From TrEMBL:
Residues 406-538 form the GGDEF domain. Its main location: membrane. Its cofactor is Mg(2+). One of its GO terms (molecular function) is diguanylate cyclase activity. Residues 124-241, 250-366 form the Response regulatory domain. It catalyses: 2 GTP = 3',3'-c-di-GMP + 2 diphosphate. This is diguanylate cyclase. The lineage of its organism: Bacteria, Pseudomonadati, Pseudomonadota, Gammaproteobacteria, Pseudomonadales. Keywords: Phosphoprotein. Its EC number is 2.7.7.65. InterPro entries: CheY-like_superfamily, Diguanylate_Cyclase, GGDEF_dom, Nucleotide_cyclase, Rev_trsase/Diguanyl_cyclase, Sig_transdc_resp-reg_receiver. GO terms for biological process: cell adhesion involved in single-species biofilm formation; negative regulation of bacterial-type flagellum-dependent cell motility; phosphorelay signal transduction system. It comes from Geopseudomonas sagittaria.
Length: 548
């Protein structure tokens, strides 16, 4: 094949690759729409048509994984139709699992390091900054995190780029191309658009309220003053440009009437909400531990106990203190309703209830609870899970691994020579390095993996369904890539690396033993030269060899 023919072939492959990616995104966006609407025959037909288009593109481009996922989604939708067109919890869970796999899938079959559909589909970030050098440097930093950034040095260049393609987001200096020119240009870019482009504004000087108000009207999602901190900018861009696959809400229904629980389940299932029902309230604690719901619906009057009594039992367990409890009862006495809410309840709904009312209440309460829980269990600097919660997630993963007979690995990471970074460049630079590694890990690990900030410059990762060899390969690739990053600094740019220790769950091991083994492997990696990954088994072998 000639060089020209090879180039033509590559262009053709890229063309079909983009078609596969865009069809996948359509399927994912349709599925996420269920989180805001309700199931219907029209919605089902749209999702089916999008899945069929994905399957056709995948077959043509010879992407067996995407073809397989599209076929599985079609089969699942056919099962919904066979269920008289109704969703149920099992089908919602199966569809969501397929969508999560689709979101994570890369283009190259069998390549574990291939980026997911969502990262490959990112549109470019337009950088409209007066300082060309700052713009170029920022573009290079964004590239390390999977973004394509396009520095633009004039109004003409900005308008031309906008005519060719809309960006995922715009980083706009307020005074780009003249005093207040950036505000005017951003407002111009938004004209005629149904959905505004997200704009992050920047000003070297502290901006007054009038300027900030103009920025909001021009689609401003954030405003940076003084200096343009790359790590903070990265976090906002990640939030604004990613298409997150939000897990369906899970609701536990406790009511002694089977007819009522079935009716409530059908209403919630129609909104893509996964449910589990109990007619025996005595089983509630076991169901909570296994199901981990976002919200609980309780009947007020049951033969075994009253709903208020059960709410108190639930609230006595600190793990469920913040789980919203909604009473759903025929009780219409306002005083009794208020008394019930004062005893562990968050809301009171009266039977019979309209589906829209119930769904809206559940969604709002569950969304708020998820948000508050995230604030409680996450580290304020990085957004990762805190020390206590990552260990709780490790214990949960250990129980599931033993029950399902699946492997489980635990990794501990430590930034090398971090004290020198703080001493030479200051704590703000140290925080920037920590936040950058946190984002790096979030982007390159699976959604099913749990990442925590263990303390200081130390991180922990729980990797379910993963043996030590696979965990080593994945984290070693992340280690190599992170070491290639450059942080702008004086007198020269800064590079950092990390060391990592990995342990795999063995038999009946306790979580604290697994964590201790990962810590020992990390210790070995630090003392073997840093910037490396060690497993606990490898560390033991080296130790025995040294003693021999």
């Amino acid at each position: 094949m000639t060089e020209h023919a090879e180039l033509s072939s590559d262009r053709l492959k890229q063309h079909f690759a983009q078609r596969v990616l865009h069809q996948a995104r359509q399927v994912l966006e349709l599925w996420q729409r269920l989180q805001r609407s309700a199931w219907s025959s029209v919605y089902r037909d749209e999702l089916l048509a999008a899945s069929q288009r994905l399957g056709q593109c995948a077959e043509r481009f010879q992407q067996p994984l995407h073809a397989q996922l599209a076929s599985a989604i079609e089969q699942c939708l056919q099962a919904v139709e066979a269920n008289r067109g109704r969703l149920n919890s099992a089908l919602i869970g199966e569809l969501d699992s397929l969508m999560q796999r689709l979101a994570r899938s890369g283009l190259r079959q069998g390549d574990d390091s291939a980026p997911g559909i969502l990262s490959l589909l990112r549109k470019p970030i337009y950088l409209a900054l007066r300082d060309g050098e700052r713009s170029e440097r920022l573009a290079r930093q964004l590239e390390f995190f999977g973004f394509t950034a396009l520095p633009l040095d004039s109004v003409a260049a900005f308008r031309k780029a906008l005519r060719q393609r809309h960006p995922a987001a715009i980083v706009m200096e307020v005074d780009f191309a003249g005093d207040g020119g950036g505000l005017q240009l951003a407002e111009e870019a938004q004209q005629g658009l149904e959905h505004k482009l997200p704009v992050l504004f920047f000003s070297e000087q502290e901006a007054d309220t009038r300027t900030r108000l103009a920025a909001v009207r021009a689609g401003g999602e954030d405003f940076f003053s003084g200096s343009l901190d790359a790590s903070a900018l990265l976090e906002r861009l990640e939030d604004l440009t990613r298409l997150t696959q939000t897990e369906p809400y899970k609701v536990l229904i406790v009511d002694d009437s089977r007819a009522q629980t079935t009716f409530t389940e059908r209403m919630l299932n129609s909104a893509g909400i996964i449910t589990r029902s109990l007619t025996d309230p005595i089983q509630v604690m076991a169901a909570l531990a296994e199901f981990q719901p976002d919200l609980i619906i309780l009947d007020m009057y049951m033969p075994e106990c009253r709903g208020t009594e059960l709410a108190k039992v639930i609230r006595h367990h600190e793990r469920y203190v913040s789980v919203p409890i909604i009473y759903l009862s025929a009780e219409d006495d306002l005083d009794k309703q208020l008394d019930a809410m004062g005893e562990g309840g968050d809301d009171f709904l009266t039977k019979p209830i309209q589906a829209r009312h119930l769904i809206a209440t559940v969604r709002n309460r569950a969304a708020r609870a998820r948000y508050l829980k995230a604030r409680m269990v996450r580290d304020s600097l990085t957004g990762l899970y805190n020390h206590t919660h990552i260990l709780q997630l490790l214990e949960d993963a250990r129980v599931r691994a033993r029950r399902d007979q699946q492997p489980l690995s635990f990794a501990m990471l430590d930034i090398d020579h971090f004290k020198q970074v703080n001493d030479r460049y200051g704590h703000p630079m140290g925080d920037r390095v920590i936040k950058s590694l946190a984002l790096f890990l979030k982007q390159r690990l699976r959604k099913s993996d749990h990442i925590g900030r263990y303390g200081g410059e130390e991180f922990a990762v729980v990797l379910p369904d993963t043996d030590a060899a696979t965990a080593t390969r994945v984290l070693d690739d992340i280690r190599r890539r992170f070491a290639e990053m450059h942080f702008p600094a004086q007198p020269q740019d800064l590079s950092c690396s990390f060391s990592c220790g990995i342990a795999e769950l063995q038999g009946e091991q306790e979580a604290k033993v697994l964590a201790s083994h990962a810590d020992e492997a990390l210790y070995r990696a630090k003392h073997a030269g840093r910037n490396r990954v060690e497993t606990f088994a490898t560390s033991l072998r080296h130790l025995h060899e040294a003693l021999a």
